[in-house]
Specification:
Two copies of one chain form a homodimer.
Chain A: E1 2-6, H1 11-23, E2 28-33, E3 50-54, H2 60-66, E4 75-78, H3 84-89, H4 91-112, E5 117-123, H5 148-165, E6 170-176, E7 178-179, H6 192-202, E8 207-209, E9 216-220, H7 222-234, E10 245-247, E11 251-254, H8 255-266, H9 268-271, E12 274-276, H10 280-286, H11 296-301, H12 309-318
Parallel strand pairs in A: 1-2, 1-4, 2-3, 4-5, 5-6, 6-10, 7-9, 8-12
Antiparallel strand pairs in A: 9-11
Chain lengths: ~325, ~325
């Protein structure tokens, strides 16, 4: 077996590569990113089965080199992308990376490995603002993005759906909740605080909470996201029905509940490292993310539900 | 005032050009199409205010020539496109004309006439199959196209929405019902029969009905569609809210009701010219078009509702 992951230097890409290497002892995994990816530190014993390639996917020639008819991948994982805030700040860059590079890859794939399985990480940002309390599933609400990032994700989903319907490819688009608790460092993402307030205290550092404790979010643990990315390739295509896009399961949790879980597991001294410092700019963005999703379709298809906030934190602590 | 219409050789493009010339006595109208458009026969008295240009919009250089910063249009009407069956039969052509040419035009417009009003004819084909009896509006059902045509329309809508949100352009995407009764000739479109069974008898010719009389459709008269294309540019952008896409009003009508209206206005001898000859291929396509839409959003915004089937036929007969 042979997998390739684009955007493999990113947090989810690294976790997915490690999981694929561990769960598929015969598989080779190609990691590619604009920054030369490393073999995930937790999977260095498998480095003979990995191949790390620096590749700028906005270059058609680079894509042509990466995907050829002399080597067919079992699954192509498309995880590369300019994140939400970056796509909003730099429209042209977002279009080039999130849309044009993805479309060029899909077109290349249907030429050199027709019918290949493609797992695309989309986002719940394909949905704009929902009425308060309204619970979204895939059938009851239109995807009207309120960001360029969400628009670009929706467009690639639409292409992937049509390419799959026509038999060009076998696409699966999984819409990710906010992935929390992420290892690593705080980022410029508006959602960074959701990981920061857990991760930083466990590393002895202070964290800032820029929104109210009443704020509710739809999150998913990294382990569940990675498990579902693996399942996304294993679930028979027939189970997707009319749409190759699926809202991945997650957990609706308030910041208050997150802090309670932090204190329960880490004690009051860790909890004390979180400082509330309201930031209206971040709050305004976060308030547009609805926390209300019904993941019944994903669960019926065979995706797994998320763990509790406490279990999520325990998994993070175990990984330290 | 100065308007431009792409796809202006088509039936709706010609009707829109005539209506704009009539209703805006000072306006100039540029008609462009890959086939050199003519001045609409009903508007030849206004030919000094028209400009007809043959232009292949899949050529960036041609688009660059058509849209320059030395002449700002008040509204750009994007009506060009490869129709549903054509986009399904020739995927590459549909992508090039319906998606790539449209996107290139939007990008050119935001460079040379930022903020310009753009009216884009989308289609209710952005929706796939709906549950039997389910009544779609813009808020309660996802757009999951079941054709390449619908996918391409949805993608351009998504771009137009994001470009409008960012202030690049002032876009309005109107999703057209099946336009009936169309003048002209029978076409290869699966929906051709809906016009054929009225138009052909009134011209003394036989028409074939390939589906059951129980079949219900969501149609709109040409006059109402044209009126709403004019209103699409007049309605303040604020009324569109979070989405620049709107489901245009139409009329739910069964084939039986259409035939009854034909007989009432044209008499039994016209009705007798319609021959029922079941075509499973056409029926299968038509059954995927839901006839159930609630156009309340469009009506609240200021678009007009459609006329009755009888009035629709009378308008066709008056135009003969």
């Amino acid at each position: 077996m042979s997998f390739i992951i684009t955007g493999a230097s990113g947090y989810v890409g690294q976790e997915l590569a490690a999981a694929l290497l561990t769960s598929h002892p015969e598989a080779t995994v190609t990691l590619t990113d604009v920054v030369l990816p490393i073999v995930p530190p937790s999977a260095t014993q498998h480095s003979s089965r990995t191949k790390c390639i620096a590749a700028d996917l906005t270059s058609p020639a680079v894509v042509d080199d990466l995907f050829t008819d002399s080597h067919r991948f079992d699954t192509v994982y498309l995880l590369h992308g300019i994140m939400s805030s970056g796509s909003e700040a730099n429209f042209e860059l977002g279009m080039r990376v999130n849309l044009d590079a993805s479309r060029y890859i899909l077109d290349r794939l249907r030429q050199v490995m027709p019918g290949v399985k493609v797992v695309f990480t989309s986002s719940l940002a394909v949905y704009g603002l929902a009425p308060p309390g309204f619970v979204i599933d895939e059938t009851n609400f239109p995807a009207i993005p309120s960001s360029s990032y969400g628009s670009q994700k929706l467009i690639v989903e639409t292409l992937l759906n049509d390419y799959s319907r026509r038999g060009f490819l076998d696409g699966r688009a999984v819409r990710l909740p906010t992935v929390t608790v992420r290892a690593g460092k705080p980022t410029q993402a508006a959602s960074s605080f959701a990981s920061d307030i857990i991760r930083e205290p466990f590393n002895g550092r202070k964290a800032v909470l820029p929104v109210s404790q009443d704020t509710e979010m739809w999150i998913c643990s990294p382990a569940t996201v990675v498990e579902n990315l693996i399942r996304a390739r294993e679930i028979p295509k027939e189970k997707f029905g009319d749409s190759r896009a699926v809202n991945l399961p997650g957990l609706k949790v308030s910041i208050r509940e997150m802090l309670e879980a932090l204190e329960e597991i880490g004690g009051p001294e860790k909890r004390a490292l979180v400082e509330e410092r309201y930031d209206p700019d971040i709050d305004r963005i976060v308030q547009t993310w609805t926390p209300n999703f019904d993941p019944k379709r994903a669960l019926e298809m065979g995706f797994v539900g998320d763990v509790s906030m406490r279990e999520n934190i325990r998994q993070y602590v175990e990984g330290l």
